[in-house]
Design the sequence.
């Protein structure tokens, strides 16, 4: 019987069984940032330990950096955290992509663009959205601070193996439907807790057709569906993306590529569960509530608690509607917004900005709307500026910012004020997620965010930008 990629990677990195039944798993690559690492380094010092394999750990600063003036963080705590990261990396010999390196950015953008993220390896990071790296056929876990300490000290972590659910999306996406819509639709179908205990293998024609950056968008939000990690099997696109990247060994690259591809799930691999979704059933999707699974197609009305029988679900809907200040049974399209945010580790890559720039020329951000565009890394920013994308955004009334996490979680000056409603390309819509305890977040694709910014309300980008199916080639 064949094996899934998850099984192959797990077996290749299993060190041994612990007394409590968990597996001690070797972590091939460890990514750190300024928020969860200071305490972990402090624990190492308290225990008199060093970093076991410093060459396997890479650091960057992302969560707390301002995106307007990066010369000196406004917040003293932010400055202290950045100083601590620099000092710890210097003391323990860890590679640090700082603000002056030209390589700084969101950790889940930096890893792939540097070629640090590679197929067939295990990756850990003290950040929820580490699953992003699974787009390359890696098994990537978000971990807590004590586990960050463990990986720094031993290059291993203890965990139980996961079940594997294969999610097949068949057919072809319609115009105006993007990777973000696919992942929001999956989460809507399976639920925010549906993936607990699972790794998600994303497969089928839709994922085969996706670019690497689109696959990253989907894997990024596996955690929002309750899965511990999500991945796509490596293929020729994976190899082409990584070829020539700074941390990819190009000596005998054909052998390296063959090894990477060998990790893909076998044709006769068995899975604990298989879910099939038709691409034609997916529309541009937006969230209406306070959990990523509270999403609907742009053509649908906001749900009503009166339409469900389960008491828990009724309470959940009513709580979300009250917080979001939305009316049950009314269209989501047309709801007024105050802020638009394009960026984050979900949708802050070059292809995201290229796609939006294609459509916004000749349009302008609506009066009263603040629209931020934040590249996921300094390299992404440079690439965009080389292509003149920044000028297109600025001409359309968007603010072009420097690289960082920005308004995704607002551990920096980019925050909502009061009960402002934000159309966001980020990954979470929890209460208070974007910096205000009463701020409201509606998740959607970058192009849908642009449509909302231009119209001043949640809109169907297909209508605004006149997206039509391409004519068939004779």
Sequence:
């Amino acid at each position: 019987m064949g094996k899934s990629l998850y099984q192959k990677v797990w077996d290749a990195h299993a060190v041994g069984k612990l007394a409590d039944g968990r597996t001690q798993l070797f972590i091939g690559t460890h990514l750190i940032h300024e928020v969860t690492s200071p305490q972990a380094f402090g624990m190492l010092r308290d225990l008199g330990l060093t970093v076991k394999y410093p060459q396997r750990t890479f650091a960057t600063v992302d969560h707390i950096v301002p995106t307007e003036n990066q010369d000196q963080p406004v917040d003293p705590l932010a400055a202290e955290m950045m100083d601590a990261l620099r000092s710890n990396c210097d003391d323990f010999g860890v590679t640090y992509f700082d603000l002056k390196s030209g390589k700084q950015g969101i950790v889940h953008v930096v890893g792939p663009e540097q070629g640090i993220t590679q197929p067939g390896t295990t990756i850990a990071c003290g950040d929820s959205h580490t699953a992003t790296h699974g787009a390359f056929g890696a098994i990537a876990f978000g971990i807590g601070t004590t586990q960050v300490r463990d990986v720094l000290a031993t290059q291993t972590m203890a965990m139980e193996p996961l079940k594997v659910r294969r999610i097949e999306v068949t057919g072809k996406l319609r115009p105006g439907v993007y990777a973000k819509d696919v992942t929001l639709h999956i989460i809507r179908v399976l639920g925010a807790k549906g993936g607990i205990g699972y790794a998600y293998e994303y497969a089928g024609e839709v994922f085969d057709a996706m670019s690497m950056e689109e696959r990253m968008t989907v894997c990024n939000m596996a955690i929002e569906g309750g899965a511990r990690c999500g991945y796509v099997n490596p293929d020729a696109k994976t190899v082409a993306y990584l070829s020539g990247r700074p941390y990819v060994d190009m000596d005998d690259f054909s052998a390296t590529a063959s090894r990477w591809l060998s990790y893909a799930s076998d044709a006769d691999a068995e899975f604990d569960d298989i879910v099939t979704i038709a691409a034609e059933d997916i529309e541009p999707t937006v969230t209406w509530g306070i959990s990523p699974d509270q999403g609907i197609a742009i053509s649908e009305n906001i749900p009503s608690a009166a339409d469900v029988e389960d008491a828990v679900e009724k309470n959940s809907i009513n709580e979300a509607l009250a917080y979001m200040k939305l009316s049950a049974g009314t269209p989501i399209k047309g709801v007024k917004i105050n802020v638009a945010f394009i960026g984050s580790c979900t949708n802050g890559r070059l292809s995201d900005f290229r796609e939006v720039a294609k459509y916004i020329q000749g349009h302008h951000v609506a009066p009263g709307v603040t629209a931020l565009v934040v590249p996921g890394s300094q390299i992404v920013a440079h690439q965009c500026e080389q292509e003149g994308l920044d000028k297109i955004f600025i001409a359309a009334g968007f603010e072009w910012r420097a690289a960082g996490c920005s308004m995704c979680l607002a551990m920096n000056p980019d925050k909502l004020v009061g009960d402002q409603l934000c159309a966001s390309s980020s990954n979470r819509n929890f209460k208070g997620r974007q910096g205000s305890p009463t701020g409201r977040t509606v998740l959607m694709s970058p192009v849908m965010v642009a449509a909302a910014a231009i119209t001043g309300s949640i809109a169907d980008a297909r209508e605004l930008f006149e997206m039509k199916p391409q004519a068939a080639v004779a």
